[in-house]
Structure formats: C-alpha cells, structure tokens
Amino acid sequence: MGIFASKKGTMNIYIYVIVGMSASFLLCVATVLFYLKYKKDILQKQYQLKTAEVQYQKDLLKAVINSQEEERKRIGMDLHDEVGSTLSSLRLLVDTVLAQKDKEGSLTSNSLQFKKTIDNIVVKVRNISHNLSPILTGAYEFYDALLDFCDDINQTSKIRIHTTIQEDAEKVQLEHFTKLSLYRVIAELVNNTLKHAEAQNIHIDFSLINKEYKIDYKDDGKGISLNEKSIKKGIGFKNIESRLDSIDAKYSMDSKIGEGFQMNIQLSLMN
C-alpha cells in the first residue's frame, strides 16, 4: 500500500508539473499572440493614419489647383469679354478710318502697320484667354486644345513641335481635372524648352499600352543637369510635380548637358 501510495503521489506530481508547464506554454503563446495582434493593430492604425494624411494632402492640393484654375478662368473670361471686345471695336474703327483714307488716296504704310499690330494683339489676347481657360470637354477636345497650343507655338517661334497620338490613346476618356493637369504640365514643359533649351524640335507622343496612358516629351536642346538643386527648386518644376502628384501619375526625367531633355509620364487607367 505504501509503495502504491508513493507511486500515486509521484504520478500526481508529474501531472501537476505537466499541467503547470502546459499552462505556462499556453500563457506564453497567448502573450505572443496578443503582442502580435497588438503590433498588427498599431501598424494598421499607423497605415490608416498615413493613408488619411496622404489623401488629405492630395485633396488639399486639388483644392488649391482648382482655386487657381477658377482664377485663371475668370481672368481669361475678362480678357475675352472686356479687352477682346474693346480691341475688336478698335479694329472696326481702324478699318473704317483706313477705308476712308483709301478713298482719299492718302493711305500710308504706317496706317497698314497700325491695323496689322491691332490684329496681332487681338490674336495674342485670344490665345492667352484660351490658354488660361482651355475648353477640355472630351477626348478630342483635349487633343484639339493641345494641338491649338502647339500650332500657336509653331507659328510664332522658330521651334517646331511634333505630336503623335496613337489611335487607342485618342479614344481615352479622362476626368476634367486630369485633362487640365496634363494640359498645364505639357504647356509648362514647352515653355521651359522655349525659355532655356535653345532647341529646334519638340516631340510629344501619346500612347496607350496595357491600360497605361503614356506621354513622352522630348526636345533636342542643350539639356540640363538634373543634379542641380536649382532645377528641382524652380517654380516651373514644382508646378509640374504638384500637378502630376495630384492625379497619381508616375513620371521620370532624363537629361544630360548637350543631349536634350526628356520626360515620361505614365497614368494608370486600371481604376
């Protein structure tokens, strides 16, 4: 009996030890699982906060850009309605005076130059008005506005802009804000080339590849050093960067001294 009782007591001790070790193991597992879940919740909250902050920054950026566009639109309309109509009236008056002078046989080259100058001012005011508030109501209108802008450059400068629009890209339907942002970016790139590149040609290609809308811009100018801090701090580059960021576009630049400038813009159409 004594030996049996002793063995039973020993067995109970083993059971208590096993139960205790099992409980400790389960407690450790529970602690680890709790810690992992806690860490996951923290990371998820941090991700949500970061996502919310990024979205807030995008919304704020869009609001600022929309405000700027509204002001541009107002100025463009004022130019068209007020200055444009006044110049048109002045042109009619000059036509009347010149017609009368012609009958009297006293028409001079200065008078004709005066008329030509007014005509040039009317065209420039119209172009400025359109550039301030381009009509971008559909896919074709988007390209029409860009082509009009390029034609104006071709007619008033020595540089030549060559555009290629792939058939699939021509049918792409973009949101108004996206179209306006891309229009502004291209205009800014062209103006930068005109001011600084000493280029003879600009090539702008539009394509659609695997749901990716692409714009390839390239000039044959003197090129720039992309390592220069002044380039990325410039107002023009910041405007380009902010507008592309506002529409979630990916972009890259490539340029070397003496080898021109190139920018590739890529916009996903998956969503």
From TrEMBL:
EC number: 2.7.13.3
Histidine kinase/HSP90-like ATPase domain boundaries: 180-261
Annotated signal sequence range: none
Gene Ontology MF terms in the entry: ATP binding; phosphorelay sensor kinase activity; protein dimerization activity
CDD domains (alphabetical): HATPase_UhpB-NarQ-NarX-like
Keyword Oxidoreductase: no
PANTHER family: NITRATE/NITRITE SENSOR PROTEIN NARX-RELATED (PTHR24421), NITRATE_NITRITE SENSOR PROTEIN NARQ (PTHR24421:SF10)
Name recorded for this polypeptide: histidine kinase
